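Check these lines:
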Amino acid sequence: MARQLDLIPSPSADAEWRLDDQTLESGRRGLAKARAALARAQARLDHDATDATDATAHHHRTAA
């Protein structure tokens, strides 16, 4: 997965729009959980695709 570039804090940015450290950490934890869930789902899809390929190959060998 490509890594997102870090944002550079700007002294001219409006302080009202800056996120506090607790909110930033909460967002990071949420992203980590989402990435882990996506990785698990992709692994499941990859596993299912391998099983389907193996079953098809087995069927062709035994049907002949």
